[in-house]
Structure formats: structure tokens, C-alpha cells
Amino acid sequence: MALRSLCAxxxxxxxxxxxxxxxxxxxxxxxxGIKKSLNEQIGAGRGDWSTPNSSSFIxxxxxxxxxxxxxxxFQRKFQRRDGSGPYTRDGSGDIAADNGIGAGSTDSCSSCxxxxxxxxxxxxxxxxxxxxxDAPHLFGLGLKEMLADEITAELxxxxxxxxxxxxxxxxxxxxPLTSKGISYGxxxxxxxxxxxxxxxxxxxxxxxxRPFFHHGGTISIREFVIGAMNAEMGFQxxxxxxxxxxxxxxxxxxxxxxxxxxxxxxxxxxxxxxRNQMATPxxxxxxxxxxxxxxxxxxxxxAESKLGRTTMDRIGCTSCHVADLQIDRDRRVADVxxxxxxxxxxxxxxxxxxxxxxxxxxLDSSGFAAVKGPSLQPFLVKNIFTxxxxxxxxxxxxxRNYDGTTRKEMMTTALWGVGSTGPYGHDGRSINLHEVIxxxxxxxQGSRDAYAGLATAEQRNLxxxxxxxxxxxxxxxxxxxxxxxxxxxxxxxVKHGSIRLTTLFNVPADIE
Length: 512
Fold this sequence. Notes:
Elements: H1 38-42, H2 55-61, H3 63-75, E1 113-115, E2 122-123, E3 125-126, E4 133-134, H4 141-169, E5 173-179, E6 182-189, E7 195-196, H5 221-231, E8 236-237, H6 240-246, E9 250-252, E10 258-260, E11 277-278, H7 280-291, E12 297-298, H8 303-314, E13 325-327, E14 334-340, E15 350-356, E16 358-360, E17 372-374, E18 379-381, E19 390-391, E20 399-400, E21 406-407, E22 410-411, H9 433-438, H10 445-452, H11 456-466, E23 469-470, E24 478-479
Parallel strand pairs: 8-11, 15-24
Antiparallel strand pairs: 1-2, 3-4, 5-6, 6-7, 9-10, 12-23, 13-18, 14-15, 16-17, 19-22, 20-21
């Protein structure tokens, strides 16, 4: 599933193939592929905490199995008999009104988000705009969703406070819109309680930060999943709760994200027909997988790359590319820290350390495994390098739309993973880091010119730092869950180590 904005697939590009076959359909002597059929993955439907093999039950009582099931669905090569296709209007219609017509077609999420190998990475391209858009990676996607949601809540708290003060004082009240050290301008509430948003910057007047799409268009992972499965894969996801929320209701997803149609304009699932329907549990597992998906890694740091990091501060890059941001209430059940390690790293000199971030509830009278939920503790997100704001960074990044208009503002791209994801820019037009930096203008003109004025060695130091911010293949990266064995007979084809979530299942022998 290529997440629709994040997404996708070029209409005129390389052939698209899912990463994993279904062993129940294509058995093989190597024993490779997904062990469970699609019907087995759907299981007992949405259910509840007392319905074995339902999405509610597995996410609550066996969360690492739920993550792994989501991963297998993400990598699954869907078939026509599963309901894949036809796609958005089958490529015909008014693309100026519905840019999903340019989204292409694919059989797997990993067709567009699959590099490095087996990851929820990058690699696709779509014709949803005349100059195309590249599919960014999905590492750390849940962290981005949580940060954006918390920033939104704080900005709206400022509005509520201004409204209360204006009501009490019968005078205009001006409040600065700040959250997590980032300024979004200021807001004024007049004595008659009319809200003036003319000085709000980097976010819509409703103060909702939308972290997905290059231009900042969608609120939640769940909406992305449903939209992409329809636009790119032709599936119509059944989600009665989101449908009701989009009409003004309120839902809390199984991943803990609150969606309230009274506060926000939500993307309703497409009208379902008798064919091409995708069951709600598939959406549940994909959302939970992406909420908990690993953040990018940090590769080998050198004296030069460390100097490059300080140069970013000195020339003003980090005024928009803010390095570290704190989440107050982390909804993930684990964190994985991946770093350069020549002693324990096998295939790629990287080693991942998984740390649980959950609370196990006391056993209830049901006789089932205990409920395991997130501890909801604060978490410092390091090396993300974004401010979750839209900026005008000059004509080099302007984007033509099919309706003849030009988009001038884009979200600040999070730089984590940038060392792995060239070519660069939302459209892939910049061939290397040097060129994409020089492409900046507008609000970034000063920093761009400062970079251009650096000595060649200083420019290279800055690029060296950015090259340390990398993605990695989870199936080929040794970890404390599976450190590998360099002495094994068939190493490195086997026993190279991996982030083996199966170790954390309630029943590890039951493979997904």
C-alpha cells in the first residue's frame, strides 16, 4: 500500500512487484513468504478484547504479533481475486478535480515504499502532479503523527485561552502560537469573539498540523492507509467508525489516535460496493504497524560530520530543520535505536536495540493473555530535523497543479533518512545533497547563500553529516532480538541477524 501522499507509483515507471508472496498460494522449498493466508490475517474481524484472533484482541494482548502482521500485509503481493483494482476512475476523468487519477496502480504497499529491502522505505513516483511526486520513506511515521497531533492541541489551547480572556475582558486578546519551541505566528480574538487568523503562519487557519503529503494534507495514518489502498490498489476499505467520524462523529482508533469530525475535516472512506472491499482489520494492522515503525538510523560519525552538524546551526538551517522534538505521550509499544556498530553489526555495520515501552495489565478473569498497552511516557525524538510548518522556499520548489494553479508552500521535509533517499526534493529533481541545498530560496535564501559561501571543505562536512542520517533494512540488521551468528555455515545469506519481532510474540512458534 503506497500511502497516498507519501506514495507511490509512476504511471510510466519500472514494473511494480510486491516484496512477499503468500506461502499458502505459492509454496516453495525455501519456505519463503508470508505464512498466513489473507483470510487468516483478517481472522475474526474487528471484534473486541475478548474475541480471539480479532484485530482488537491481537493489538491489545499480543501487540508485537499485530505489528508483524501489519508488516506482512504491507509487504503482501495482493491478487485480483483479493479485490485489487480497478483503480481511481481507472485513470480517466477530471484530474484537476481528483488528482488520485494520477496515482497509478500497484499490487503492494512495498512497490512504492520498499527501499531499502524489506523496509517501509522509499522508491515510488506518482503523476498526481504535472511534475510528479516521489514517495518518501515511512520510517518514524508514528512519531510524526504524534508530534503533529500534540502541536495541534497546544495551538488550539492558545486559541481557547485567548477566547476565554476576550470573553472576560471585553477586549481584543493576542496570543503567540507556539508549541515545542516552534512559532506558528499569533492569533487575535476580538471583543465580539471573531477570530483573526491573518498572522497565523505555516499552518491552516484551523490550527491543525497535517503531517502527511509534501504540502501537509492529511491528519492521520489511518486516513492515509484507506486513501492509498483505494487510489493505488483499488481496494475500498470498510471502516464504519471513520465514516461516522467524517460526518461529525468521534472515534479513537485501535492505535490510540483520536479523530473528531467536529474539530477537523476528515477523509471519509470511499463509498463501498459489493466488490473490491477490504476488511477493517487490515486497516487496523497497517495503522498499528506504521505507528510503531522504526525511526531512521545514525551511521558512522566522524570529526568532519560533527563539524558539519555545527555548521547547520551556524548558517541557520536548523531554524526550520529543528533537530529534536519531544513527544509528551508516546503511543508506541517499543522503540528501536539503530546505530553504527562494527563489532555487532553484520551485513551493514548497524545494530538495533529494541526497548519496550509498554505496561502489562494484571491478568483478568477471561483466561486470555494479559493486555499490553503503551506506557504513554514522554519520548525525545532525535535527529528528525523538521518544524512541521509550511514554508515558501522559493520557485525552485514551486509545484504546478493540473488545474493551472501553483503551489508555493511545502512542509519542511524531515531530514532523518536523507542520506539514503536521493534524488532529492518532493519531485526528485535534485541529483544530490549539494544541488538540493542550492535549490532553496525564499524564506531559506539566507541559509542557502551562507552555504554557497562556505569553503568546499565546509560544504562537504555538512553533506557528510547529512549522509549519517540513513535508512536500513530491518530484515538484514542485527539486533538484540536476533544478533546473528557470523560463524554459521551459510553466513551471511542466513544468520546475519534481524529485528525479529517474532521473539516478542505470546507464542513465538506461531509464525506470521
